[in-house]
Design brief:
- The chain has 605 residues and is of the alpha+beta class.
- It has four domains: 133 residues, Immunoglobulins (Immunoglobulin-like), CATH 2.60.40; 140 residues, Immunoglobulin-like (Sandwich), CATH 2.60.40; 115 residues, Immunoglobulin-like; 119 residues.
- The chain is built from six helices and 35 strands.
- Strands 1, 2, 4, 5, 6 and 7 form a six-stranded mixed beta sheet that branches. Strands 12, 14, 16, 17 and 18 form a five-stranded antiparallel beta sheet that branches.
- Helix 1 crosses helix 2, helix 2 runs antiparallel to helix 3 and helix 3 runs parallel beside helix 6.
- The N terminus is likely disordered.
Length: 605
Amino acid sequence: MWVAFLFVIAAGRAMGTFSVRVTLEKAAVHVGEQVGMSIEIVSDKGNPPVPQVPPVDGLSFHLMGGGGISQSFQIVNGRMSAEYRRTVNFIVVPQREGSFTIEGIRVEQGGESAVGNAVSLTVVPAGAPMPGPPSGQPPGGVPQGASSGTIQLVAQPSKTRAYVGEAVVIRYFLLVPPQKMSEVRQIEDFGNLTTSLFKRCVVEELPITQYPIESRNIGGRAVGVVLLKHYVVFPLSTGVLNVDPAAISVTVGGMGLGFFQLGPTQTVNVTSQPFNLEVIPFPAEGRPDIFDGAVGEFNLTATVNKRELREGDAFTLRVELSGKGNIKNCPPPTLPDLTLFEQYDNTKNEDISVLEDGVAGRIAYEYVLVPKSTSSTEIGPIRFAFFNPNDNQYHTLATEPIHLQISARGEGQSDRILLGAGAGAKREIILTGEDFRHIAVGVPGAVDVRLDLYRQPIFVLMLLLPLGMPAGAAVWARHRRRLETNPDYARNRKAPKMARRMLSEARKAVSGGEGDKAYAALTKALADYVSNRWNLPVTGMTVRDLGRQMQQKGVPDEYVQELVTTLEDFEACRFGGAMNSNLRSDLQRTENLLGKLMAIKGETT
């Protein structure tokens, strides 16, 4: 990079500059609310050092960046001198209400010292109205991140309080003062401004390929605004979500002239303010029994590809869920009782898009079913429950029952055998005749063998089997009644089967190197097994809360601790950008842990 000198011919005194200027983004804030503080140091003695801020009781100071150093040169009365300028950013967090004065910020360099001006900050209780502007000051002062004279990185969440699974739009803007709008050249490095900022969240990013500067009026000031990042965030657990400051590097200064830059340039490090997102649980009142964490606004439809069938024919049930919200992570709709039908593996097709204000699209589930008899004439309502944060209400969708006409297969008609050929694809083999093999008699060398069947153990077992059938039937009937009348028992019994199904999905994702899907399936395998086995409502529960609930259920502490650590590690891998490094070992880790948990009840993987 070429660095040129800016020569300014003036008839004044030599520079001899050494000063410190302190500014606050706001003059009044609430307790716990962050406010930016900028310290600008101008010196003719070389690169200025980072200043030390004296402690102030009731305030905490956090250094957010040492700032870049700009240089300019002057010739005065034939003498050339240099001026160095540095801006250092702090975040100030008030711990209590009151009036505070920040003063005595001193910089020492070259045997000299300079002291910054004092600034005042008024802190009011959380939720209290803010005081009006002082006399003579125009209303609507400088908004956060729009300090005069400095380039700022600002985080703008659409809300600071949201339900588990509710979409929160978070955008990051670069605010550029008018006098610097023509100097911004490029963003050198996005630093930590990535999805890794959002822990324990599902994050979708709206791609941005161009970064034009738009002039806007903010708080009565003209400010250049550049949209850098646009995220849609879905928090996974309740509590306070702390979003750390983001830091990037921007090249400013100079004037483009072909391949050269006329005038000095510098790399400025800018840092956003941290902020908190309060994630609240779903209300208990009115929660449907089939609700499993879907948040947004949705529609549900169900269709079949044919309604008139013969006994043994296959047909496809298509269930489509559409809408806006956390649709990617929604549970599938709840199917009715399908015991009158043979069921095959379902397929799932997604068409989902990230929009400016959320995520929307549709998911189609297809189930291949075969009626077991002519009485399999109805598919009951398919249901889906979700929570709508716009009206703070639960909603339950239900499709109309689907009626079928099943005719018996007549005599002489070819038998049809349905074979699976892949995910949901089926083909029929029709038997049109029989194979004959004649029995040969009078074979030479045949020997008569006498078999005393009554002496064989299998003969005795067959005689005793009818005596045990009534008892077996009674046990089976009791088991079926418990499944139908006791939801907790039904969940307990199906827990191992569901866990094995999710492990199967995880194995496929691991083989394909799909880290996001693999960790989602592994997490769901563990969480669903624990939820079903011990009847725990894991939706909206933190990992630590889940561990405490399991301890209350009498699960050994070593298993609880291993489960908590495993789930936390999987969340860190899934949302922290390190998804593909330990997939196979984490799959084995999950299988081993499920084996231990199942062994408590005598189950095995």
